Task: inverse folding
């Protein structure tokens, strides 16, 4: 049994709520009190993630012009940036943990993604 269970369909359903969460959570949690970048990095990433989802070629994409493989690559890059950001940008306390944990979660989801040929039973 493969541990890679996140299908393209599951990923698509996660995309919009995650994008909205990236925009809203910094305000809800009060991020950026010590470093404003901690607030705006998440907000800007959420706006970009929303746009990426709209443009991705999956069943919830509205304008399907970007390949899903590009979407996954961008998600992986976001995970790496979020894990590195607390160290590179000097985030502390809640800002640090927000990015470290969120980045690790994004990398986990991308890592658990089921390749298309497995999803099709090939």
Result:
């Amino acid at each position: 049994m493969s541990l890679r269970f996140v299908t393209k369909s599951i990923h698509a359903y996660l995309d919009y709520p995650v994008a909205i969460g990236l925009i809203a959570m910094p305000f809800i949690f009060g991020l950026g009190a010590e470093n404003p970048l901690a607030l705006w990095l998440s907000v800007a990433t959420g706006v970009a993630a929303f746009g990426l989802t709209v443009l991705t070629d999956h069943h919830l994409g509205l304008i399907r012009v970007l390949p899903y493989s590009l979407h996954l690559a961008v998600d992986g890059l976001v995970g790496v940036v979020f894990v590195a950001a607390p160290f590179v940008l000097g985030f502390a306390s809640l800002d640090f943990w927000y990015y470290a944990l969120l980045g690790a979660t994004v990398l986990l989801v991308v890592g658990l993604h089921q390749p298309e040929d497995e999803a099709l039973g090939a």
The two ends are 15 Å apart (CA to CA). The chain has five helices and no strands. The first helix runs from residue 8 to 29.
